[in-house]
Amino acid sequence: MEMLSVQDLWVSIEGREVLKGINLTIPVGETHILFGKNGSGKSTLLMTIMGFSRYRVEQGKIFFKGQEITELPTHERARLGLGLAFQRPPTIRGVKTGDILRACAGDRVAYQALAAAYDFTPFLEREVNYGFSGGEIKRSELLQLLAQDPDMVLLDEPESGVDLESLQVVGDIIGKLLQKDRRRPHRDKSGLIITHTGFILDYLNADTGYIMLDGRLLCSGHPREILEHIKKYGYVECEKCGR
Amino acid sequence: MREIKERAQRSLQKKAPLGPDLDLEAFSREGGAWEYDPDYQQFAPEERRHLLKAGVELTDQEHAGTFLQADSRVVHCLARQAGVEVLPITEALKRHEWLADHLWNLVPVDADKYTAQAELALDNGYFIRALPGVKVAEPVEACLYLRTDRFSQHVHNVVIVEPGAHLHIITGCTAHPRVRSGLHIGVSEFYVRREASLTFTMIHNWAEEIHVRPRTGVLVEEGGRYISNYILLKPVKTVQMYPTVALAGEGAVARLQSIFIAHPGSELDVGGQVILKAAHSRAEVIARSLSTGGRCVSRGHLVGLVPEVKAHLECRGLILAPKGVIYAIPELEGQAAGVDMSHEAAVGRIAQEEIEYLMARGLDEEEAVSTIVRGFLSVKIEGLPPILEEELEEAIKESGKGL
Q1: Interface confidence: ipTM more than 0.90
Q2: Fewer Cβ atoms within 10 Å of its own Cβ: the N or the C terminal residue of chain B?
């Protein structure tokens, strides 16, 4: 069964065409990885799936758990089970991180216990993302997702700006979000993850990878093989090949 | 005395430097002949609810003292704790000969036509005093109440917190639910003596056609502490106030916090000045203004006269409606090497990115806006009556709806 299906998706930002006919299907329980140069459109795809107003769908459709969500407001997508960890989330002055975490958790989990489990308690009283380090931002984003407990996790460069020590924590949370400890047939969460370094692949079971180039998806394959290829040859060959 | 009267006479036509000028002839000096009311019997349930929204609980319980002036009449006045004096100012002047020297000492009588009116046509006002070393645990509740339409209320208040004493005053300034228009002129002079502490919380809850002109001067002596909280959440025609706080003794501290909402038709000119005159004095001025369609000028002026003083000013404004105006004017004036003063000012609308960030967490747009506004207004005010927390929450929800 499909968790997410993107069909011939064309997206523009302020009149500039960014995504040019994306087709993508992610079955239930699978995690797919997006590679690609900066500016190729990876974040745009995640933001469009989440429904942010800046990203205008010119053509195509998005289905989530069988329901078309192309025109659905962001909060309804979140309530259906889509969750996004931002690469660079905004700072919201005056609003406490704990309040957001509580809103994410609803009645599902005790947010204080969740924060305590990941040494995050001191941050609950702090303003959302205000003065947070790179690692703290990621921890905050991922804990919000854990509290939300989404069926489909969208992660935008979860390892960027994270020191090695925090990477372990970040990786552990992602593993939990995507049910790393379960065998494939028993996994019911899916993921779509942007990574440059591939460090995060050690902490999850990735099924398929893609290279995005100039708003198009090319070269699907095993994520580690794709990563090896990029490490060896960069994106030059992809540009030449263009498949 | 004669000199003061003469100065007031000469200022009867003197316009205030800030805020819209008012024609005082447009208001009436005929207030109601309200009876003294020891048990708060004369207030109908509707009126009680309305007063409560200004933080006025109409009870002597859990208050160190109470004072209620309706139009020109003092209808309730009581001190319940030893070491606390609460009196109508006219009565206090009779009892304490020395008190006259404390009037027009921190606010000039000839500041403008409003101060002149308060001298020449005084209704009354409160005198509240905490005797030396008395730590007053419960707040004193004061209420200045416009109960007659078009009435022009003139009050003069004096607060003295003697050395080492602690006092919290909650003042609710409001109008009868059926009063539409009027004018409130309130002169206040606060003396915070050595090592004393005064927390002064003022809640304004007026009506669409009411004009308000408070004139406040505060003196804080060595080691004294003055905390002012000002809350205005409801519509009003105009408010213009610019309290001046002088930190005159070493280590004196002032913290001025205000939260105000400019509704459509409201014109607010709110701010304050702190003059740091003594070494190691510190000041913090924090203003959060919100416009849902009204006009709002948010001022702040810090003056450092000597070295080794530290002060910070924060004016932040959110415009939530297309026609809203917020004009933030932070001013820093250092007159000596070694002053440490800073400011932060920001005026804007709520970023779409912030709203959508919260929507990605499952909050709908209205909830997201409320959350952001609630955060914006989250200035910690101690000892706020619970009803005001509810009022604040209601104002937050309402303000998000216009978007």
Answers
A1: yes
A2: N
